Amino acid sequence: MCRCVLLPDDLTGKLFLPQNYHFHAVLDSTNREAMDLAHGDAPEGTVVVADQQTKGRGRLGRVWVSPPGVNLYFSMILRPPLVARQVAQLTLLAGLALVETLVAAGVVEAVVKWPNDILVHGKKLAGILSEMVAVGERVRFVVIGVGVNVNGHAASFPQEVAERAVTMVDILCQSTDRGGLLAEFLRTFEGWYGRYLQEGFVPVRQGWLGYARLMGQPVRVEMASGVQTGVVLDMDEDGFLLIRQKEGELFRVMAGDVVFI
Q1: Cα 239 from Cα 217, distance rounded (Å)
Q2: Tell me: the pLDDT tens digits for 200-253?
Q3: Are residues 183 and 244 in the same domain?
Q4: What is the mean pLDDT of residues 2-27?
Q5: Which of 106, 229, 239, 261 lies most in the core, judged by the most C-beta atoms within 10 Å?
Q6: Same domain membership, residue 154 and residue 62
Q7: Residue 228: which domain range?
Q8: Is the pLDDT at 59 greater than 60, yes or no?
Q9: For residue 240, what is the domain's CATH number?
């Protein structure tokens, strides 16, 4: 059986410590629990893990299907010295750490999709949900939630999810130790996070683009303000997409859902 609870010896870095690791058999949402802990002054590096979520959430209010015993659902608390507009960069950093972890675990065709998904052959393997609390422009804390489809089969999900999802066991035809996967992600994330705080977004951007399949792709961007279409030119120095519209004008996408067309 694949364990989900990490052993203390697995947490060997300086950011994620055994005493700040919280495992729950069932939670409504790891992000909600982590937000509550963060409001209560839980330290940076706190990690909340659930074996099952009853109200797992993705971006834009979507449901993240979270059955027990098979997949990985966790959230972590960060208290970075950032302003609010920089928080989107942490989502990309988490995506970079996650895709590197998955590739190292054997999912060699995993790619990142802006801003928060990991795909394999166009199907979602993992997703990230970042939430923050700020005082004015200064960030008080950020909660980054991650869901990875590990040992369940996509065919067991509700039909509307199964059609666009994939799992590690579907790809690798063997189970993956969830605790080991989480430990490797936390080590990888800690390395990138430390580098980000020292060097800024430039190395994260370069690393992320190395796993992206976005440039030159025609896309539809669904935003709260409406829908825009165009071709992806680049990701700018802040982590936002640059789209060239049909009329030739450049459009900067700061938030939205990107759909390949």
Answers
A1: 17
A2: 999 999 999 999 988 888 999 888 888 889 999 999 999 999 999 888 888 898
A3: no
A4: 83
A5: 239
A6: yes
A7: 218-260
A8: no
A9: 2.30.30.100
Token pair for 231 = 């071709």
Contact 2, 151 (CB under 8 A): yes
Read off the CATH number of the domain in which 130 is found: 3.30.930.10
Pairing of strands 72-78, 138-148: antiparallel
The token pair that represents 194 in the structure block: 């430390």
Residue with tokens 């988490």: 94
- Total domains, the chain: 2
149 lies in the same domain as 233: no
